[in-house]
Amino acid sequence: MALIMSSPNVPNGSSSSEKNDAYDLITLGETMWRLSPPGNTRLEAAHQLDIKLGGAEGNVAVGLARLGKRTAWWSRLPDNAPGHHVANTLRSFGVDVSGVAWGGSRLGTYFVEFGSPPRPTQVIYDRANSAASEMTPADFDWSLLSKTRWLHLTGITPALSASCLETVRHAVKMAHDVGTPISLDLNYRTKLWTMDEARPIFDELASQCTLVIAAARDGKALIGGDTPPNWVGRGLHRRWHTPTVIVTMGERGASAFDGHDSYEAPAYPVTIVDKIGAGDAFDVGLLCALMDGKSLEDALRYGNAVAALKMTMPGDLALVTHDEVERLMSQPTEGIVR
Amino acid sequence: MALIMSSPNVPNGSSSSEKNDAYDLITLGETMWRLSPPGNTRLEAAHQLDIKLGGAEGNVAVGLARLGKRTAWWSRLPDNAPGHHVANTLRSFGVDVSGVAWGGSRLGTYFVEFGSPPRPTQVIYDRANSAASEMTPADFDWSLLSKTRWLHLTGITPALSASCLETVRHAVKMAHDVGTPISLDLNYRTKLWTMDEARPIFDELASQCTLVIAAARDGKALIGGDTPPNWVGRGLHRRWHTPTVIVTMGERGASAFDGHDSYEAPAYPVTIVDKIGAGDAFDVGLLCALMDGKSLEDALRYGNAVAALKMTMPGDLALVTHDEVERLMSQPTEGIVR
Amino acid sequence: MALIMSSPNVPNGSSSSEKNDAYDLITLGETMWRLSPPGNTRLEAAHQLDIKLGGAEGNVAVGLARLGKRTAWWSRLPDNAPGHHVANTLRSFGVDVSGVAWGGSRLGTYFVEFGSPPRPTQVIYDRANSAASEMTPADFDWSLLSKTRWLHLTGITPALSASCLETVRHAVKMAHDVGTPISLDLNYRTKLWTMDEARPIFDELASQCTLVIAAARDGKALIGGDTPPNWVGRGLHRRWHTPTVIVTMGERGASAFDGHDSYEAPAYPVTIVDKIGAGDAFDVGLLCALMDGKSLEDALRYGNAVAALKMTMPGDLALVTHDEVERLMSQPTEGIVR
Amino acid sequence: MALIMSSPNVPNGSSSSEKNDAYDLITLGETMWRLSPPGNTRLEAAHQLDIKLGGAEGNVAVGLARLGKRTAWWSRLPDNAPGHHVANTLRSFGVDVSGVAWGGSRLGTYFVEFGSPPRPTQVIYDRANSAASEMTPADFDWSLLSKTRWLHLTGITPALSASCLETVRHAVKMAHDVGTPISLDLNYRTKLWTMDEARPIFDELASQCTLVIAAARDGKALIGGDTPPNWVGRGLHRRWHTPTVIVTMGERGASAFDGHDSYEAPAYPVTIVDKIGAGDAFDVGLLCALMDGKSLEDALRYGNAVAALKMTMPGDLALVTHDEVERLMSQPTEGIVR
Amino acid sequence: MALIMSSPNVPNGSSSSEKNDAYDLITLGETMWRLSPPGNTRLEAAHQLDIKLGGAEGNVAVGLARLGKRTAWWSRLPDNAPGHHVANTLRSFGVDVSGVAWGGSRLGTYFVEFGSPPRPTQVIYDRANSAASEMTPADFDWSLLSKTRWLHLTGITPALSASCLETVRHAVKMAHDVGTPISLDLNYRTKLWTMDEARPIFDELASQCTLVIAAARDGKALIGGDTPPNWVGRGLHRRWHTPTVIVTMGERGASAFDGHDSYEAPAYPVTIVDKIGAGDAFDVGLLCALMDGKSLEDALRYGNAVAALKMTMPGDLALVTHDEVERLMSQPTEGIVR
Amino acid sequence: MALIMSSPNVPNGSSSSEKNDAYDLITLGETMWRLSPPGNTRLEAAHQLDIKLGGAEGNVAVGLARLGKRTAWWSRLPDNAPGHHVANTLRSFGVDVSGVAWGGSRLGTYFVEFGSPPRPTQVIYDRANSAASEMTPADFDWSLLSKTRWLHLTGITPALSASCLETVRHAVKMAHDVGTPISLDLNYRTKLWTMDEARPIFDELASQCTLVIAAARDGKALIGGDTPPNWVGRGLHRRWHTPTVIVTMGERGASAFDGHDSYEAPAYPVTIVDKIGAGDAFDVGLLCALMDGKSLEDALRYGNAVAALKMTMPGDLALVTHDEVERLMSQPTEGIVR
Fold this sequence. Notes:
6 copies of one chain form a homohexamer. Chain A is α/β, with parallel strands linked by helices.
């Protein structure tokens, strides 16, 4: 339980002062406009679209910023109204966007049509040729990686373009050089690439990271064979030798394997308002707790709590506070607080 | 199971080329403006109304058109903005509205106030003296009945006015003359007439149709006595000698009796967004599957699937595709497709 | 100028105490739901409708109630959600609706599509067979006419149905019997009847009223010939021998003829938000000022001021206060009051 | 069961004519603007607010007025647009607001952020220094207490200010003097005062009332010790000697103790749309039934039914009719009534 | 004045029967989603977007369809919800979309931010790599060009991609081969290409067309030198030898030169609601009048009237009727029609 | 013309590097929620409120931040959702809010009801007892005044409370001590205090400032007598010996007096969307130009341009860019940029 605290690779609250960091976490990736018709209206019959933001890395940056962490989000944005809208919105929630590279012709967007069981929620990506997909290693000031406690990446960015893949590889190398720990959420997207395309990249990146987060289904697909769910973490650890592997299992919660022991934490029951972004919210809670020196098991619980709260609000962003997370973990109330 | 395919009365895919049809299905009836306050607001306290379309026959025409069938909808519409709104909307989903008779003073409307259990959803009709209620046999080109694979009618139209009843009788006679099969959905509405008023008309019409669809409750009321639910189809068949009788049972699914055998198909579990139009959506799936040469049992399942999807979207119309229906029937996913 | 105060037929503030009145004004007529798409959207392409109230007499009752007069509105309303919505809304602004007769199948409605020059604003009535059109003299407690200082009628009600005409005739007779003065706003509507149909009714009613208000255009059409605008009032007075005739001239203001002298008052310049109801608002200001003992000329000015303010707000109702009217008349400010 | 009818302190339908009452119920308290973002949007990220009314006593007055009772609501409101908005809205639903004292600088408001389990709904009060909090005994015409069948108070008003407490004390005394029965809903609010602050006031007031309504949790907190839920009513009766004590238990229904016997009635299952105001709706049903001469047990059931219906509609107000309540109690339908 | 009617190149009503045409007009080009924040909100600060359609050729097809012409619109659309939304909407207004080629990854979109003087309205295109930009000559059934009375093209399509330019060239050639007259609206867009890039293409295409429409400013830029406005038509005619040249001059109206004479027609004064699409609306009126056998001068007036009406409604589409156009031309009313 | 550049008191671009400033401008004051019904709806009849921010100093900070200046806004905000909403929104536009003091019970709010001539726009303040009104000198880090190029204050803050006045006095003293120039916009508000109350405070503060901005009307009221408009600047300069006095004259533009010469710049004609905040936007342009080393006369023009653009967008904030301002000043276009 105390493993994570003694691990030299896992930064936490106590080590922060020594390093005199500028940031708690830097992340890079694409944030898009998420356009969705109100309620359960079909996109084909829509007359209006709500504008929200979406993008795994930006979601993580916002969630952590609201929990008091100093986070920076790097990306490329077009220098037009939609591009500035994204930067403004992330900044409004406290994320440092000064590292954004401005330029490129368009903002990536995606359309969400909210279903209701048995009709699934549909995502239509319109992100090809976005400014973010044109990011290159030259866009960012890599020296800042020595001034952050943590670097967070996802498996989405490498799928966007060759230059994006190159940028992620460069980020991993640069972080390694200065000893900054890296978390990677695989975030496998079937609409971006096949698992066969993704596997070698995932293997290459994951084996250099401190912490890898994978959905159980994706973990099984990576390992192949008949891996039982509770052995996915172990299997991925064996595959990559990543110090810590987190496996998320949706309504069944999340588990962790730190090379020695397995931990598990159940999900909180939720009346879902908007499920999108729940995985990123889990990352927010997990990373925040680890940075605060909590045990791996407590961090799983913290992640589950942030994810649960996220699902009760519209939009990808986890607009929650420490108080709310802790109240849910200690004395849940479903009624009215007045 | 294969009865329906060999029945000379039931058109299906294979017969289409022989007859060189212009339409797969013609239907006639009233489509109204459905005006409802947003969410669960009481109509008495409303400030805004959403405009949707409603009307059993138009709903069927739209649903089938989206599933690739060539459908025509006949009615009478006022030559004003609300009337054109209706024609435009049906046409937008691919329905042929060239047979509409223009004229009459007003568009029928109805107000819907959405409840939440235990408060029922309320419908207030304001359809008296509508243009549609003034339709007469002289309004339509009956020669087209020889160029359609199917005629669809409901038990609502005969209740609207004497001239509507006359028109429905004329339609039945004309279809008979050219051997076009007729489906009839009883759609008994307590706010339009009593069962005692409806019974002789239902009996007269149903006994001339190829396929009759009835809610179990209405079927029982027609037959009287202590008919057990699973005998309603048989009872109606005995009463009318209709080749095929379909009995819908809400959350308990649907059943069919083809004179020899009974079939049953369970409903799909649904998180309901808007229930209105679910029965029409069932008809859409049922008729589409029969036209495509599927068995009666498969057609029940197809009907249930279309009805389930309809209930997940606002408005009376079943805006679904074959892909969506088949995905639901083969590998349901409730999550996010991205 | 002081004529109106000394005229025995024109009630004003000073006479109120003597008569121990229950109401300052009773009016009867139809109030409908006014349904309009937002902004300048064409009705044919609309997806939403705003619900407002409209109806000349109810508009007058609301406007006067807000200016402190005790007003009652009589009509017939259906005992359903739309009917109660109308009563609730009128009551919310202080109108006594206890005299409403409940019953009838439907609430009259009308659709408004807001134009922008050179496209005119279009009104589509859907009021046939409304509950209000079924009102009869038996619906109301005529003894109350002896307890009101004023009865207000319009030329719309007689056009709605035979029983409505009968009710208006009855009202005029009953008011006459108890000596209650009557105002009549002709409110000629081309979509309800032709001038040839309206003329004999207007003549019959106007000749029994204390005060008649007519649009200049309608007055000219009534008189015929080449009446110059500023002689319309005189012409109508000669025709009907009505003690006071008011002629409204839109952007050119209003004039009055009291049998001896003519008065005129210019309209206030307005940046129009919603013109509908401006005529009723003029009546509100005119009648309020007369009841308060103001001169006929001042009453014209008061009417113009209320009409101007009404046009700056959405909806038919003149939601203004004495303070606002007087500020406009004394020291207009177009800026921001903060 | 018939106790309540024979009790001289509990007014009911039969006694009404004897007393020639002007009102069935007078209540006094604060009604605020309730401002909430649409859906489940977080207040911190909101762009729009829906305006509804909230305030326990006004809610009770509206609910009863809609059930046919003549109710008056007394309070202090600022003489500005928000203040008049409140009076208009209460009046629109039939409440007599002629006793409102006008003046004071601001309307109390509160913000509601709707949660979804496990995120609780949050209320942020902004009611300090409101006009209502400045009410004094001099604001109201206490002689009217002899012309009402019932006075209704809540435990919220005494918590608002010293002058509010004084006004409530005065109301209790004045009602006592003329023998008008008093109901008191404790409505303990943790954001207004602590239970230690509230207890002596609750004790003082409750011991002078005819009927006291308390949430089980608050009742237990008042009594202290390990009172089992079904003994809370008895315990409160022993504490205050109030003739009738009602204990509400949320999803578990409500119970009553009349000094001799205990009654209990289960809650109706509800798919909740908006829970706020459910307690006031219970009071509405309870008091209405008692006034109509129903038994205490039936009154509990009536209260539960009104509360259930209230939770199916947005806003604090129970916009229900006798028909709807009785249909729910006799033959519940969750489907569509058409 | 009668020149146009006797010209063999200009189709009109009388020739229609001879040719037994399937269409009055075929057009090809891109229709996009036009996404704009409500009112005058800046796009950078928006939370919602209204979905409308935009695209010069589709706009022309819709306008003409509503005026009774049989129009077909050809393009390439992605086979997803946004793509079907476009087809549905054009079809709803009566345009034949059966010639659409389905496929391609994305729907072209553009953002509109409505200004208010002195802030200009801004258009941000996001149309690169759209399905429409991938259209090729192989996508369409060119044999239909012999069954249409008219082909309409614009100078936008050639700027979208090489294959689009090729398609337009092919269309011009095919129409020529079967003698179908061609209209071309230059529609020069500075955000798509420079005038130097556009000039040779415009010259190539215009010289093969029957009718060319150009904005005065663009015409001058094409010709160069100090051409006075009223000589632009003549100059373009000399340049291309196009039988008829139309020059639009915004608020100053439009002019025509038919090789012999010049005609001019003033614009109608308009209180603008939405200016976008006014040029296309002018084309609608012009082409409709010419097809109906009106003189060139009358056609200019008809075009100006349709353009004026279009500017009074939100969205690019001219949702007008012949009645409305003729009422504006004969007896304009700015008031309320009721 | 070049006076301002040579003045030692007026900071501009060139001096920035020497001083190694952290901020270009610090301002302190109250920012409130501005709640307004949509369109021209009367507040008394509203159902929804749009949330915008308002407050002179925050408006200035946002406008300047968007023009590239590093601005900080100091205030006191309640630590609840409305308070964080304000901080988030200001931060989204690039304002540094790290100096905000958190605490206090409520966020100041104000209601705006938009008029239309001749009905004025009404502001109802609800700002008493706000967190901001409780600010004290102890809330802020005054040492930062030596690290900013400019301090901006308004005459609103001193009117809010005694502690606010004390804070403003302290700010003036602290800025004086470190030689930081101070601008003061009098912003006289009749709803906060009388001119007699304000005069001594204005005199005290203005005489210590580098630059004072006053509306002509307020300047005249301060000076008294029959000051002709073009002498107000001179008069105020004589009164206070302020180096530079700016006088704003609404639609007539603005003037400046620098102790030697007078400058004037006309306003830009605007089709007004929302006038509120125009004065603050003028300050933004004026101060930005001065900081960029522009002449006083050019700065007036820049201020007028920013004010004109602000009035074309909803909300108090001037969301404009340098490009837009310069395009307006050099080559205004009112059409569509596409």
